[in-house]
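Summary for the funding panel

The consortium committed to producing paired sequence-structure records for every protein in the target list. Below we show the first two records in order, beginning with the earlier of the two.
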Amino acid sequence: MPRTKLIRRQPATFTPMFPTPFLSRTLSPLTATADELLAQADEMMRAAFGTLPIATRGEWFPAVNVSETKDELTITAELPGMSAKDISVDYTDGVLTIKGEKEQETTKEEEERRYYMWERRFGSFQRSLPFPGGIAEDKISAEFKDGVLTVHLPKTEEVKATPHAIPITEK
């Protein structure tokens, strides 16, 4: 997989579309205040939620759902345009890791085309999801259909939820 370089995002600055000396003098204190507010908001989000994964060029993160029943945990990941051979799934020390790489295919016709918007994602990805103990590792299975990867993590017998009635005494 290609190596990617992570770059820290800098706070946005406001630049007028048609700068004039008057506008520059007038807006300068406002842009400094806006930059300071953005930096403070960024710091507050980091303090509250920690650092979130930052996608760089050539890297993306597929949408993942995690659900639970009394017998298993199920993870679904949307991987449109990929096939099962492009994906690997690994479970080690309580962490499920889904890796893959989506190749960008170009044709001669596309090389001569000029794009104004490009939202499709290509490149490598990796998602690691920690799980508590109680997973039957030898029974984990995965299936891939219509661009959706589904991983089944069966629970061991000792952690399956069994309801216990609690007697209530009246006083």
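The next record, for a separate protein in the list, is shown here:
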Amino acid sequence: MTTGSDQALALMESFEVAQGVTHFGIEMLAIATQGKAVLTERIDTMLGRMDGVETKLRLMGIFDVEDGRMTAWRDYFDTAALGTPG
């Protein structure tokens, strides 16, 4: 879990260090809102620096938004897509 933009950026940088990920892409499939919640269905694509392999994750995200600012972000996905036990 991260709090604030500094921690979020540090998490993204850890992907590069641990997994060799250099680029992220997002394909938005669906988006809906209810109250403070924004729900997304999307495909996130990560490109590996070392091997050039592209990893695609289909996932569901839930964002809480208050006063135009994101206050929480949760993603749910099947870890099998990463080749790791779930």
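Regarding this second record: The longest strand covers residues 21-34. Residues 4-19 form the longest helix (16 residues).
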